[in-house]
Amino acid sequence: MASYDVPFGVAIDFATGVMEDADNVVVRHASDLRGYYSDADAMEALIASGDPVHYRVYEKAIPETEGHLLFCMSVLEPGSVGEEFFMTKGHYHTVADTAETYLCVKGSGFLVMKTSDGQWAAEPMEAGRMVYAPPLWAHRSINVGDDPLISFCVYPAHAGHNYGDIETEGFPKRVVRGPEGPIFLGNVA
Ligand code: F6R
Ligand code: ZN
What we know:
Elements: E1 24-29, H1 40-48, E2 53-59, E3 69-76, E4 80-81, E5 84-85, E6 100-106, E7 108-114, E8 120-126, E9 130-133, E10 138-143, E11 149-156, H2 164-169, E12 174-178, E13 181-185
Antiparallel strand pairs: 1-2, 2-3, 3-11, 4-5, 6-9, 6-11, 7-8, 7-10, 12-13
This protein binds fructose -6-phosphate (F6R) and zinc ion.
Zinc ion (ZN) binds next to loops.
């Protein structure tokens, strides 16, 4: 494995999101998102139809220690489970007061964010738009377009991922297909 204590560069294809020589490629299939969508029957039908890839995350194995930065390419496929657009699991960082930036390079969607004390926000993700998730804000990307939603993310290397709290709490809003575009549904204003 390369040393990441010396300078290096990597090639990234913005058309596909593929990072050349990625050390890790996290591949999440539909079945990895079981329980995340409101329409459980639609999810089972999607899994039965071949359990397609939901998203991929390309990373370099940079040491997860304070001082380093982790960066990745996230490629979220288009589609919906029932009427709910494909999304990532979403997480807080384990070191909760660490931020993250997302630069969208292709596609169309939202970065939906929330805090544990009930605030929420949704920032549009469009090619060339950078979205900032501040410390303490959980974040999830949602693809509302017809193409993959591709983003480049950077965050402190010691941040870690806390998925468990989102599995328990969910997000206050779901993004569903409406007659004239995406609609935010939820019981929070
Ligand atoms: C890293 C980060 C992104 C996501 C990726 C997949 O902190 O926020 O790189 O990891 O978009 O989403 P999750 O990790 O929620 O499955
Ligand atoms: Zn994150």
